[in-house]
Design a protein that fits this description.
- This protein has about 290 residues and is of the alpha/beta class.
- It has two domains: about 160 residues, Oxidized Rhodanese, domain 1; about 130 residues, 3-Layer(aba) Sandwich (Oxidized Rhodanese, domain 1), CATH 3.40.250.
- Helix content is about 25%, strand content about 15%.
- The strands form four sheets. The protein has a five-stranded parallel sheet. The chain has a five-stranded parallel sheet with strand order 8-13-12-9-11.
- Strand 6, helix 4 and strand 7 form a beta-alpha-beta unit.
- The longest helix is centred in the middle third of the chain and has 12 residues.
- About 45% of the residues are buried.
């Protein structure tokens, strides 16, 4: 069974042929996370890693600063429409361009920027299947040349329903029509090991499809559509009228949301603050086991 929306994903073969397309914008989205002893992560921009070698002609989309809400105390919150438009225009993204996003961490950061672009109404974007890992495993060329995309005009057309807060999650708990879906690892979901965000475990009543389980570990390419369809179906996500994905801070959640979009589910939202907010509030229900 194939993807319902295959246009959201491009293969390395396609990109290699189209790198010189003047309308194409290739953006690396990597961020490096360092676990903190007290829980959560310290974030480091992947810009230096990109500068040391990247897919030819690609630019760098900096989620650590440029593409996070500067007014929030939480990491990686969706920025304002104005901030998104300004940053994307500076990166050369706008009317008449097509964007391919990649990263070095199982497609999660690329999926995050894809979801953010979708939330401001830009639909001509795709994730590079397997990202940097698959590109380099296949022995394809890399470069250290700076990016030279000209500035563009980016017009935001907001879709605010693609990101939700804790009230929407609370409203969905216990509703048969809603699926609250955790994208963290099974161990984090159970609360047995891994990085925590204040309290171990999961939002009470939520299901689990780990973002890291969506890909082939050797290439970081997404597993076949029929395999992922079965996994999301087993979690109750495909039958649900509404799915809200979450993780620690909205990144892995974006990868689950992206794959659900590939599979054709059109009523999915990301809980942006995720456990960074939820686990810090003792009044909000969590469970382990």
């Amino acid at each position: 069974m194939a993807w319902i929306n295959p246009q959201f994903l491009v293969e390395t073969d396609w990109l290699a042929v189209h790198l010189d397309d003047p309308a194409l914008r290739v953006l690396e989205c990597t961020t490096i996370l360092h676990p903190r002893p007290e829980g959560g992560y310290r974030a480091e921009s992947g810009r230096a890693t990109w500068a040391a070698g990247h897919i030819p002609r690609s630019g760098f989309a900096d989620l650590t600063d440029d593409l996070s809400d500067r007014a929030s105390s939480l990491l990686y919150m969706m920025p304002t429409d104005e901030q998104m438009a300004t940053v994307m225009a500076r990166l050369g993204v706008g009317e008449g361009t097509r964007v391919v996003l990649y990263d070095r961490a199982v497609n999660m950061w690329a999926a995050r920027v894809w979801w953010m672009l979708r939330a401001v109404g830009f639909d001509d974007a795709a994730v590079l299947n397997g990202g940097w890992k698959k590109w380099t495993v296949e022995g394809r060329p890399t470069s250290t040349e700076p990016c030279a995309y000209p500035p563009a005009r980016f017009v935001a057309r907001p879709r605010p329903e693609l990101f939700v807060g804790k009230d929407a999650v609370l409203a969905g708990l216990g509703q048969r029509a809603a699926c609250i879906l955790n994208a963290l690892t099974e161990e984090q979901h159970r609360g047995t090991e891994g990085v925590t965000y204040g309290r171990p475990g999961r939002i009470a009543g939520s299901a689990n499809v780990a973002a890291r389980s969506l890909v082939d570990p050797k290439t970081h390419a997404y597993l076949p559509a029929h395999v992922l369809r079965e996994r999301f179906a087993a979690a109750g996500a495909l039958e649900a009228e509404r799915v809200i994905t979450y993780c620690g801070g909205g990144i892995a959640a974006s990868s689950d949301a992206f794959v659900l979009a590939l599979l054709g589910h059109d009523r999915v939202a990301v809980y942006d603050a995720s456990l960074s907010e939820w686990a810090a509030d003792p009044s909000l229900p969590m469970e382990t086991g």
